[in-house]
Amino acid sequence: MINLIQKANDNLNRIAIKSDEISYTYKQLLNASESVAVDLLGGKDDLNEQRVAYLVQPGFNYTAIQWGIWRAGGIAIPLCVKHPFASIKYVLDDTSAAMVICSSEFEDLLSPLKERPEIRFMSSDGFSSKEGNLPDIKMERRALILYTSGTTGNPKGVVTTHLNIETQITALTTSWEWHKDDHILNVLPLHHVHGIINVMSCALWSGACCEFLTKFSAKKIFNIFCQNEVNIFMAVPTIYFKLIAYWKELPIDQQQTISASLKDFRLMVSGSAALPISVLEEWKGISGHTLLERYGMTEMGMAISNSYRETRMPGHIGNPLNKVVVRLADEQNTEVASGSQGEIQVKGPNVFKEYWGKPEATAETFTKDGWFKTGDIAIYDNGYYRILGRNSVDIIKSGGYKISALEIEEVLRKHEQIKDCGVVGIPDDEWGEIIGASLILKEEDIDLEELNGWLKDKLPGYKTPRKYIFQEDLPRNVMGKVTKKEITKLFLN
Ligand code: MCA
Ligand code: AMP
Question: What SS3 state is found at 447?
Fold first, then answer.
């Protein structure tokens, strides 16, 4: 996102990134990303939207690589550091990645792919300092592909352009009044919009400091907060739940120290899943802050947000952000009457370009007159949007991750003892939903430990079912369609 990088020239000597207790300036970031770009180009003028995937922990190298890919004219594809080989291979195949950059800790994982002549493998530690001519990148060009689960089995690659990303960033930096003196702590994975755009890119756009913690730990987060440098925090509701649970177990003097540090924060945001009012209230008791809840999606960045300055309405997501147009529509894609519920549909330069290599899926997700159909159902209530649910039972939100029930079912059906299965989201205070699977077995018994072990190299941990039930047959309606709500009820009993 090319203006993001140009803006770094205004802040050369300021701290851009803090990772592993080392601080890096914007100048270091510009130099390192130039070296990456020159190496990626290898003498060419422009990568011309070649796909460059990278498997690197959040930190200075991660950012330098992302910027380097953009400066060389490539499309950046961040891979999830927790994904098993099968999920990574799927992304590399789907995007026909030309280059893969990885740090030494992931070399073994990727070694089966090294035989492939069409992929150039590079080490993230191997970029020596270089200068060179870099291409001029137009804002309409593709910049990023992020994978998201949908109502079809396999995840889809969401393509955003430099313009989309810039619009997504500036909507937030203006609304939430980001400035140079801000300092944010990132604890989120960097293969999703929440971490990449809302946290990292907004900070770097503003000349602020983005500090990274690679592995979630409530203790480490509070320790960092108590150093009184961080003044902005953004997380999914599960993380606030975990922080509250940890804080409650601490002795009173430590609780007081943490609460005193939190009171000095400028902004605390929650999103990626519905924020339970109980979590909002408990966090307010601990920190003195009413969490600012906002609503977004991989395909459009943030679309609707509570206000930074005005009242934040618990249980509501607020109003459309700058340049984002929102309507609520019925199943015929007609705008509903004021006060009625409908699907959130969105237009604006923040909305993605396409699903990579899937023109039909792209066409299906837009109305004929160009509204992006989110699948989320909402109502406009007392001057604020409020989410009521989704129009598909096959999407599960767990720990802020969007998960397709169908993708998990497809994998489970490949197990030799499983005849059929139905996967559902079970409401859960901590995770939002946890994944439950009803199994129809070919034989009488299955060893669940063995099953989870078998799943380990096929699905990431957060897509693995936490609860199982066994049925003779799946519940179906008169049309023969599996009734997922009946399965969910069985888990709740
Ligand atoms: C992990 N575990 C789970 C789940 N995930 N259990 C139940 N349900 C789950 N979903 C278990 C693991 O198996 C493990 O158990 C233990 O929890 C720790 O796992 P780990 O993966 O290490 O989890 P964690 O480190 O504790 O992380 C929890 C987390 C993480 C920090 C909340 O889930 C997370 O980073 N979530 C954020 C996702 C995100 O950024 N989403 C944004 C996408 P055991 O120890 O027994 O093995 S949405 C987006 O970008 C849009 C645009 C938006 O609106 O923001
Ligand atoms: P993702 O595809 O991972 O980007 O997830 C986007 C989805 O997360 C949206 O379609 C919503 O269902 C959900 N989501 C994001 N923010 C919120 C929120 N504040 N409240 C409820 N759901 C949310």
Answer: coil
Q: How far is the CA of 189 from the centre of ligand 1 (A)?
A: 9
Residue 408 lies inside a defined structural domain of this protein? yes
Does the predicted model carry a pTM greater than 0.90? yes
Residue to mutate (ligand 2; options 365, 387, 392, 404; most atoms within 8 A of CB): 387
Q: Which ligand is nearest to the CA of 276?
A: 2
Q: 216 CB less than 6 Å from ligand 1? A: yes
In a domain, 484, yes or no: yes
* Ligand 1 atom at minimum distance from 466 CA: 7
Report whether pLDDT(153) > 80. no
Residue nearest to ligand 1 atom 9, measured at CA: 462
Q: Which amino acid is at 5?
A: I
Strand order in the sheet with 325-329: 325-329, 342-347, 372-381, 384-390
Of all residues in the chain, the percent with pLDDT exceeding 90 is 93
Expressed as residue numbers, the domain containing 468 is 395-492
Number of domains in the chain: 1
Q: Are strands 267-270 and 209-212 parallel, antiparallel or unpaired?
A: unpaired
Q: Which ligand is nearest to the CA of 399?
A: 1
Please indicate, yes or no, if residue 155 is contained in any of the structural domains: no
CATH of residue 477's domain is 3.30.300.30
300 within domain boundaries = no
Place of tokens 């129809």: 440
Within 13 A of 440's CA, how many CA atoms are on the CB side?
A: 13
Over the stretch 262-297, which tens digit does the pLDDT of each residue have? 999 999 999 999 999 999 999 999 999 999 999 999
CA 94 to chain centre: 19
- Among protein residues, the one with the nearest Cα to ligand 1's atom 35 is 188
Residues lining ligand 2, Cβ inside 6 A? 148, 193, 271-274, 293, 295-298, 317, 374, 376, 387, 390, 397, 402
Q: What is the pLDDT of residues 291-306, one digit of tens each?
A: 999 999 999 999 999 9
**Which phi and psi (to 5°) does residue 242 adopt?**
-65, -40
Measured from the Cα of 395, ligand 2's closest atom is 12
Which pair of tokens denotes residue 235? 């997380």
* pLDDT score of 196: 98
User: How confident is the model at residue 1, as a pLDDT?
Assistant: 54
* Burial zone of 104 (CB within 10 Å; 0-12 exposed, 13-18 middle, 19+ buried): exposed
For 421-478, write each residue's pLDDT tens digit: 999 999 999 999 999 999 999 987 899 999 999 999 999 999 999 999 999 999 999 8
Burial, 216: exposed, middle or buried (Cβ in 10 Å; 0-12, 13-18, 19+)? middle
User: For residues 439 and 446, what is the distance between their CA atoms, to the nearest angstrom?
Assistant: 10
User: Interior CA angle at 14 toward 10 and 19, to 5°?
Assistant: 130
Q: Which atom of ligand 1 is nearest to the CA of 300?
A: 52
